[in-house]
Design a protein that fits this description.
This protein is mainly α and about 325 residues long. The chain has 2 domains: about 15-65; about 70-300, no CATH class. The protein starts with 12 loop residues before the first helix and ends with a helix. The chain has 13 helices and no strands. The protein has helices at about 15-25, 30-40, 45-65, 70-105, 115-150, 155-185, 195-200, 205-230, 235-255, 260-265, 270-275, 275-285, 290-310. Helix 6 crosses helix 8 (about 205-230).
């Protein structure tokens, strides 16, 4: 009788996956302790889920009692989420016109025309340059958010994704309508039919393609940039100052390139940009600094591996 095995409730595979997913949002040390305790006690799936969820809620409530998360939310996450959403929508609309022009109106008879390939290459370069710029803006935004997160990276990543979703669904369409109405009323532009109406009459270009753009060119690079921003604390002070300066300049170019934004601030505020074209070109070039950062990280890791190999030999 005394040797009968004790029947402790076991956790179902689905419950285990849910518990592991929630526990992943805890700090690594605390996660190991919690999962270890649950494994020792053999708690059932429902009770284990309640305990992990309750602990996670208490930790998140404690986080929001400090001032830093609120400052990060109001000064970084919400503004950058709105800017990136609007820029992504405008970029998607511009790219959609070119894609529709070639994908939906392809004529095999043009492939032997040299002029066609000249125009096609120019269009392709224009679209790819816009996509690359959007990726660099998104990566930089995530980089700054990761650097200033200070222990709440996962939470801020989720909040950034929420801001992007709301920006895509609500802010971007409203901003496009408002800025267009403002330009028409301020400069007394006549109302004309939209020449791109046939493009956006198709659901793919009006609804699906903008979401694809935001997922691939905004959300993905931003989350990847957050990881790089967290790791920047391991760099030297001079390198950190250099990359932070480049990041803030990039955010400045993002604001300047926001369609109609300077007109909304002041009708003549864009004139200074025309007076210093070389300075503006140099600042625009800084936008692509993430490539330099990633190259520096690769070189650093390669040097460390070479030193380790020499020490071992």
């Amino acid at each position: 009788m005394g040797n009968e095995p004790s029947h402790k409730p076991t956790m179902m595979p689905v419950s285990r996956r849910v518990v592991d997913t929630l526990a992943a949002m805890l700090d690594p040390n605390e996660r190991e302790i919690v999962l270890g305790d649950l494994a020792e006690t053999g708690e059932s799936g429902g009770k284990a889920l309640r305990e992990v969820l309750g602990l996670l809620i208490r930790r998140q409530v404690a986080v929001w009692t400090a001032w830093r998360p609120w400052l990060t939310l109001t000064l970084i996450i919400i503004p950058l989420g709105i800017f990136l959403s609007v820029l992504s929508r405008f970029n998607a609309d511009e790219s959609a016109v070119y894609l529709w022009l070639y994908a939906n109106n392809w004529d095999w008879g043009l492939i032997t025309n040299r002029g066609f390939w000249y125009v096609f290459s120019e269009s392709a370069m224009l679209v790819l340059a816009g996509w690359l710029t959007l990726v660099c803006w998104s990566w930089t935004a995530g980089f700054l958010l990761g650097y200033f997160s200070k222990g709440i990276v996962r939470l801020n990543g989720v909040l950034l994704l929420v801001a992007l979703v709301l920006g895509e669904a609500v802010v971007a369409p409203a901003y496009a309508t408002y800025s267009l109405n403002y330009l028409h009323s301020h400069f007394h532009l006549p109302s004309m039919p939209d020449p791109n109406a046939p493009v956006f009459a198709l659901p793919f270009y009006s609804a699906i393609f903008p979401v694809i753009m935001q997922v691939m060119l905004v959300a993905g690079p931003a989350l990847y940039g957050m990881r790089a921003g967290v790791g920047m604390t391991r760099l030297r002070d001079a390198a950190r100052a250099f990359f932070l300066t480049a990041a803030f300049l990039t955010i400045g170019t993002m604001v300047i390139r926001m369609p109609g934004f300077l007109f909304l601030l002041h009708a003549d505020s864009h004139e200074w940009m025309l007076k210093f074209p070389r300075a503006m070109s140099a600042v625009q070039f800084v936008t692509y600094w993430p490539a330099l950062y990633l190259l520096a990280i690769v070189v650093r890791d390669h040097r460390r591996e070479s030193v380790s190999s020499l020490q071992l030999s």
